[in-house]
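Hey team,

Filing this mostly as a record. A colleague (T.K.) asked me to run one chain through the structure pipeline before their review meeting, and I want the input and output archived in the tracker in case anyone asks later how it was produced. No errors, nothing strange. Just documentation.

Input sequence:
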Amino acid sequence: MSQIETERLILRPWEDGDAPVLYRWASDPELGPRAGWPPHTSQANSLEIIHGALGLPETYAMVLKETGEPVGSIGLYPQDVPCPDLPVPEGMAQMELGYWVARPYWGRGLAPEAAAALLDRGFRALNCAVIQCCHFDFNRQSRRVIEKLGFTYFATEDAADGAGNPCTTLRYALGRERWEQRRLGQGEQP
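Output structure:
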């Protein structure tokens, strides 16, 4: 897995040495439940998660170039929930985009910046036909990010937040063709 660079971020694999800063952000009692996981309980817990969920292929620490410190996480994960309007041709992939940003960095546009880079990777390098994304109904910030990126709503599901409370998940999808049209519409070269 390689490193990805954006204007303000470096997306790189999580490292053991990131456990203290991960714990600082991920122990926030508001952050984890909004993203679908319980708050971290210790640096050791954060290290376990680096070795587990954050160690999965295509999972990246969002490192702020200005400080060299992770301020969030983003990844692409295999997804098998079908989107009725976007079939996945044989030999192509469907993945789900997931992300979170530490509370002090909310509202700075870091999630859309990182997500745009990962969508590019998914559609160009990982042969995705469809990339999905979802958010809990109460998470307006994630909804704005998803809509900015051009995803289209397609399903509502019953779920539980990271604290185990019942809630509703809204699921969105972005097909390769729509992504390509948006990319070319912004003046990028094929």
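Quick notes for T.K.: The chain has a mean pLDDT of 93. The chain has one domain: 4-185.
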